[in-house]
Amino acid sequence: xxxxxxxxxxxxxxxxxxxxxxxxxxxxxxxxxxxxxxxxxxxxxxxxxxxxxxxxxxxxxxxxxxxxxxxxxxxxxxxxxxxxxxxxxxxxxxxxxxxxxxxxxxxxxxxxxxxxxxxxxxxxxxxxxxxxxxxxxxxxxxxxxxxxxxxxxxxxxxxxxxxxxxxxxxxxxxxxxxxxxxxxxxxxxxxxxxxxxxxxxxxxxxxxxxxxxxxxxxxxxxxxxxxxxxxxxxxxxxxxxxxxxxxxxxxxxxxxxxxxxxxxxxxxxxxxxxxxxxxxxxxxxxxxxxxxxxxxxxxxxxxxxxxxxxxxxxxxxxxxxxxxxxxxxxxxxxxx
Length: 336
Hints:
By secondary structure, this protein is of the alpha/beta class. About 35% of the residues lie in helices and about 25% in strands. The strands form 5 sheets. It has a 6-stranded mixed sheet. A 4-stranded antiparallel sheet has the order 4-15-1-17, with no helix packed on it. It has a 4-stranded antiparallel sheet with strand order 3-2-16-18. It is globular, with a radius of gyration of 25 Å.
């Protein structure tokens, strides 16, 4: 009986000895199974000035009202991974030389550690480069050709050149399809890609082709934006002035840009949308965009909630210093 008792004591001692290791393994497994959430944050003071010198300890982050542990922190500024996505459809033909010009200037102003990729779309998305530096990116941008014969955008908003009064149709803008392809390729929560989109925000393709694509309407695009973790910054060309001059017919239904849609997509990803009507406007858009991107902090955490996480999860970032305001995405969606 004594031998049996000693055996039980030895067994209990061995279990207690190795149980911390088992617990540690379980903890590691939980963290591996729970995907890291990266959140881009911009901080301003009450006067609107960007704040660049904050530390990890200055932030709190909440998911669905619950305080989360910040496990990763990158201060501002940091190298960029920038996707330049160009709308090459008919409705962008008039403004396209100005867009190329300002895009090249933007690339030339970037740092050596920044990485860029060039893509475009009309009916289909074309990936012109992989990640690269200034020379590769500039050459790719200069090689882009729009879908219609353009003219140089004047320093001030229109009039159009003489003779441009007949109008032309735009039915080759698969914007929803381009957004779907982008979100599919760069959707993971561990990424830090930013997409700079040049477009008028209008989606117009043949009805039969529209039925075949995975994304059918703007609501589905915004839902995919909420699920994606690539930020969208949009430079939206306002085409309303062309409507007044009967210069362009966008699709079958009328005229005009859809900057509101691009703004909703950008907001869903924590980005921004800016509108422009002339090349000086666009130059200012590029300046504002780069200023914001250079001001971003990255905070990351493993969500404390477990189990079935399908649904929308609200995010709130708080700066613990007084008179400072943090701006980030409102949350993210897990569809299944």
